[in-house]
Amino acid sequence: GDSLRILMVVVGLVLLVACANLANFLLAKAATREREIATRLALGSSRTRIVRQVLTEALLLAVTGGALGLVLAFAATRMLIRFVMAGSGYTTLEAKPDLMVLAFTFGVSLFTGLLFGIAPALRASGFRATPVLNGSMRTVAATGGAGGRVLSRFLVSAQVALSVVLLACAGLFLRTLVNLQHQDLGFSRTNVLLVEFSGKFGGTYQPEQLAGLYQKVSERVAALPGAVCVAFSGTAPISPGNWETTMNVRGYVPQPKEDLTALINQVSPRYFETLEMPIIEGRALDGRDVPGALKTVMVNRTFAAHFFPHGGAVGHRMVVEDPSVDGEREIVGVVGDAKYNSPRETPQRMIYLPVLQLTEVNAYARWLQVKTTGDPARASGAVRAALAEVDPNLPILNIRTIGDQVDLFTVNEQLISELSAIFSALTVVLAGIGLYGVMSYGVVRRTNEIGIRIALGAQSGSVMWMVLRESLVLLGIGLAFGLPAALAAARLVQAQLYGLRAFDPATMGSAMLIIVAVTMAAAWLPARRATRVDPLVALRCE
Predict the structure, then answer these.
(1) CB-neighbour burial class of residue 107 (10 A; exposed 0-12, middle 13-18, buried 19+)
(2) What is the pLDDT of residues 269-278, one digit of tens each?
(3) What is the pLDDT of residues 240-260, one digit of tens each?
(4) How do 396-401 and 192-197 pair as beta strands?
(5) Single pTM value for the model
(6) Residue 452 has pLDDT above 80, yes or no
(7) Angle at Cα 162 formed by Cα 156 and Cα 166, nearest 5°?
(8) Nearest partner of 539 among 450, 464, 471, 474, judged by Cα
């Protein structure tokens, strides 16, 4: 829900920037038609008719753009579906034209056309016929249309401000994705293949038969070329919905209403070796932890730090207060913390029970972990064939690399960061185009003035600075409003961030540098053109 709302806001901001460009275009077009409109007014045309004509042109542009946008949108939607489904062969999503979508797009196109066509239409209808018809182009350029030029400059500054907001948010989302993808999850995220299977479906295996199944699968898969070690677990290394219950640690006196819960995973020998999870104290679960032997358990660092703040967790006893886990257990080792439910979570208390010492439903380990020497994805076919050799009827529900398993939990962040980056880049390009258009039109209107300056001895540098100075003013105004707006937007999306604050100097600074670079590039071309004005041609310009 939050991700969708963020993307809708981003799209809305991009639409505003595009509409600002439309308004600037219509303002410039109306200014170039001053004499035409003044002549029509002098000949008796009503101002209402002028307004209607300009609005009709704006609506035609908006509707045409909306129609072309629909074509691009459906093509982009197909690409987005392929990205979200990550190569899945079957999906219920489809990108077909929908009546509601068409109606919404048509309505938005009409609304934006009317909204940003009103100002140019009113300005065009406000021309006075006599001054325009009596004055030359230089007179009109120097004295007329001041309100339109102010509005154009305001729209450019607004585009700069919105670009800063979108660039800052895109930068924050991108850094969040990088932080999530490169953090230490507590286990190896490479060279491990995960296979989800079920010995429970159809009553294929009874709990007392599972030890034999695990042994056969381990021996067959471990014999494959490139297989280093094999282990089983009740849940995948990172998976939502882990088993959770209350713990009773002997000798520990809890505080009133203290939370004594911990997550549980049932694992086989070599589990920690397969996932490269470090043993901090004691030993890992191994072949000694079998039925009839001492009931054992391993805990993670967070569990040990909570119940044994002074160390020495190994050797203490505890009871898992779940009716399906009987008896007192001895802690034989402490393993490092890992992420269990989500890459965003803080370390949680976790215990690991030997799957071979469990009974009934808890004896079913659904996940097989295979550590390989090379790319684990290439071993998927061989592992699938090995399982079929052990039992052709053993259902294989899923098979993926551990990297793909982790990526399942960052798909939203990846989608937001990539789409916001695309939209922010589009916004910056639109803002650059808008500034370029305004400054180019300003140079054209001031051609006569620039020619006079050059004829009187003005140097190219001073002419260029005259044009660039105006762009810098617009840029400064946009940054002055854009930076506070970006900080406010960052605070609103704080819950979506990970590993950084809403006010991240590097991200904010990068956003400002990008918009400064684009703005100066867009302003430099009209400024350079101004320095090449021929005074003789400019003085004859009417």
Answers:
(1) exposed
(2) 999 999 999 9
(3) 777 889 999 998 888 988 899
(4) antiparallel
(5) 0.75
(6) no
(7) 145
(8) 450
